[in-house]
Amino acid sequence: MTADVRLRSSSHVELFAAMAQVLLHREPTSTEVADEPDEFAFDEVRAALTLTRTAAEDVGALVWDLHSRLPAVLAAMRAGLIDQPRA
User: What is d(CA 16, CA 22) in angstroms, rounded to the nearest whole number?
Assistant: First the structure.
């Protein structure tokens, strides 16, 4: 069970990294980090993952917080120490 939780956590981190590319960067090739997601960022996540608007905004807000405010929590997820609900 523990190994499964670590694997799922690691998988979420990879998904979050891809989502962060959409949310944090204004252009796909840019290294400039945005101060906030652009107006269509959550819609891009929503379309790519076939989520509802609310689900895309919720997970997008979590990804935004993990990358911009809580990098230690993201690192703990990457290490398999905590899972998405704990994050």
Answer: 10
Which residue carries 């379309």 as its tokens?
Answer: 47
Rounded CA-CA distance 57/30 in Å is 23
- Cβ–Cβ < 8 Å for 68, 24: yes
Per-residue pLDDT of the chain (87 residues; tens, 9 = 90+): 888 877 887 788 888 888 888 887 656 566 666 677 778 888 998 999 999 999 998 988 888 888 888 889 888 888 888 888 887
Find residue 25's DSSP bridge partners. 33
SS3 content of the chain, % helix, strand, coil (to 5): 65, 0, 35
Q: Is the pTM of this model over 0.85?
A: no
